[in-house]
């Protein structure tokens, strides 16, 4: 008998979480990682990811929403500043960098926005891209393009989890591998 809503259990930094599954387009059900509202798990994951930050990294970069608490905590434990790319234009943005982001995983194209004052903080810096889950690599590739357009250099790609096999050959580091679908 197949479980209606299968789950996956992970243990990182002494903290165990049972991840529910969610339907993700044509991929079927995938494990759902939630950092929002789970500070204990977020702290444990950030502490474990600390050693993955490449030497010489000066800034962390993430994208809203779920990876934001993780990047914030990783910033806290590493002492590195972080910047956050938006998925929606905000009225206060001044001459933002706009980058289309094809979602190879969910099949929905998005547009990413980085306000110019935030982009200026990446200029001339070594930037590590931080994600909650990396699957196709499309989001990481889009964030790398934003770093380059801002005048920075990508120092590395970090994720708490890797899901499935990436079609892209990005050299990312991750803590644990999740099944592509369950």
TrEMBL record:
Its EC number is 2.4.2.7. Gene3D superfamilies: 3.40.50.2020. SUPFAM superfamilies: PRTase-like. Keywords: Glycosyltransferase, Transferase. GO terms for molecular function: adenine phosphoribosyltransferase activity. InterPro entries: PRTase-like (IPR029057), PRTase_dom (IPR000836). PANTHER family: PHOSPHORIBOSYLTRANSFERASE, PHOSPHORIBOSYLTRANSFERASE-RELATED. This is Adenine phosphoribosyltransferase. It comes from Deinococcus radiopugnans ATCC 19172.
């Amino acid at each position: 008998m197949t479980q209606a809503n299968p789950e996956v259990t992970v243990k990182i930094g002494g903290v165990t979480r049972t991840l529910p599954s969610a339907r993700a387009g044509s991929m079927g059900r995938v494990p759902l990682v939630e950092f929002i509202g789970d500070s204990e798990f977020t702290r444990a994951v950030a502490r474990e990811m600390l050693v993955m930050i490449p030497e010489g990294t000066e800034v962390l970069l993430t994208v809203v929403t779920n990876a934001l608490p993780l990047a914030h905590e990783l910033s806290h434990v590493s002492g590195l500043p972080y910047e956050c790319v938006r998925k929606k234009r905000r009225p206060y943005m001044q001459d933002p960098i706009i980058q289309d982001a094809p979602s190879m995983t969910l099949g929905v194209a998005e547009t990413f926005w980085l306000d110019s004052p935030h982009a200026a903080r990446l200029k001339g810096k070594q930037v590590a891209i931080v994600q909650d889950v990396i699957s196709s690599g499309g989001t990481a590739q889009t964030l790398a393009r934003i770093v380059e357009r801002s005048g920075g250099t990508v120092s590395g790609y970090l994720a708490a989890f890797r899901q499935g096999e990436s079609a892209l050959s990005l050299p990312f580091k991750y803590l644990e591998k999740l099944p592509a679908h369950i």
